[in-house]
């Protein structure tokens, strides 16, 4: 099935694979629907012997590292946290490639050894995209201030991280806006191909927060890097990775009509307000 474009999270290349020819990608959605993500989405197993619950994750906080490979730098930030339900979440920023809030798709931590996996696509010679998983495995120092390991993606590359903060920041709730809530939308790419999206929007002391799920592409909790809104005009704009969803709420507050744009693509997506509990970044319900 020819690729019609669509949300580019699924076609985002890895840290080292660049210049994906997206317009020539074929059978992309077929691969998505047949794929089973056996790793789980961004959930790390608890340290051996640990009890589930509200205990603090030892690696919670922000970590900074620089990956040098193939003549280029990738400045990375890892944001690690634990949900109230005791599930560990990991989000990654890459300032050199211009994205933030990419969820890990799985991992583990046994008290000293950390393993993370991230999903990406790489092009074949005929323009098709092949789904792959990059990984990072590291040993955490006794002080918990540094970890040294190897990033594996089309090769192996040394990568170390140092702590920026010793605890994750969890913004306190703020009075809700008219946009707060859960919103379900469908991107119709034609030919019977439909991609489902769910936004979870909530106001915090730091501003409006938006998390994006895409059940068809096996991810949830992608954190928006930028959210702007105007309650008077009922307009909102949400940037997730390299895509921007911009639109306006209906007068009755029950729907959002948006345009989703990214380099080379444009789609109209209608969202309806839904009942439900918002998810944490890359944590399963």
How many β strands by DSSP? 19
Largest sheet: 10 strands, mixed
User: What is the number of helical segments per DSSP (H or I, 4+ residues)?
Assistant: 1
The amount of beta strand, in percent, is over 45%
Low-pLDDT parts are: 1-13, 17-54, 278-285
Would you summarize the structure shown here?
This protein is mainly beta and 285 residues long. The protein has 1 helix and 19 strands.
Write a structural description:
The chain folds into two domains: 142 residues, no CATH class; 94 residues, Quinohemoprotein amine dehydrogenase alpha subunit, domain 2 (Lipocalin). It contains one helix and 19 strands. The strands form two sheets. A ten-stranded mixed beta sheet has the order 1-6-7-8-9-10-2-3-4-5. Strands 14-13-12-11-19-18-17-16-15 form a nine-stranded antiparallel beta sheet, with no helix packed on it. The longest helix is centred in the N-terminal third of the chain and has 7 residues. The radius of gyration is 19 Å and the shape is globular. It starts with 27 loop residues before the first helix and ends in an 11-residue tail after the last strand. The N terminus and C terminus are likely disordered.
Keywords:
285 residues; mainly beta; Lipocalin; 2 domains; 10-stranded mixed beta sheet; 19 strands; globular; disordered C terminus
């Amino acid at each position: 099935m020819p690729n019609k474009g669509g949300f580019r999270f699924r076609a985002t290349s890895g840290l080292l694979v660049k210049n994906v020819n997206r317009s020539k990608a074929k059978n992309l959605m077929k691969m998505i629907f047949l794929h089973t993500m056996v790793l789980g989405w961004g959930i790390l197993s608890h340290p051996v012997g640990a009890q589930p619950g509200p205990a603090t994750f030892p690696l919670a906080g922000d970590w900074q590292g620089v990956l040098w490979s193939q003549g280029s730098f990738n400045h990375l930030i890892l944001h690690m946290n634990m949900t109230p339900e005791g599930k560990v979440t990991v989000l990654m920023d890459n300032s050199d490639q211009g994205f933030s809030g990419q969820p890990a798709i799985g991992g583990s931590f046994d008290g000293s050894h950390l393993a993370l996996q991230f999903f990406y696509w790489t092009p074949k010679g005929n323009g098709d995209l092949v789904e792959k998983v990059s990984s990072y495995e590291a040993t955490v120092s006794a002080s918990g201030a540094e970890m040294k390991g190897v990033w594996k993606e089309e090769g192996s590359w040394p990568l170390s991280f140092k702590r920026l903060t010793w605890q994750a920041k969890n913004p306190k709730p703020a009075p809700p806006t008219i946009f707060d809530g859960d919103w379900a939308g469908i991107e119709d790419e034609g030919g019977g191909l439909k991609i489902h999206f769910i936004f979870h929007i909530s106001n915090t002391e730091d501003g409006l927060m938006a998390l994006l799920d895409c059940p068809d592409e096996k991810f949830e909790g992608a954190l928006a890097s930028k959210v702007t809104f105007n309650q008077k005009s009922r307009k909102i704009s949400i940037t997730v990775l390299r895509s921007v969803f911009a639109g306006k709420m209906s007068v009755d507050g029950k729907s959002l009509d948006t345009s989703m744009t990214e380099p080379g693509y444009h789609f109209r997506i209608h969202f309806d307000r839904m009942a439900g509990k918002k998810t944490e970044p890359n944590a399963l319900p």
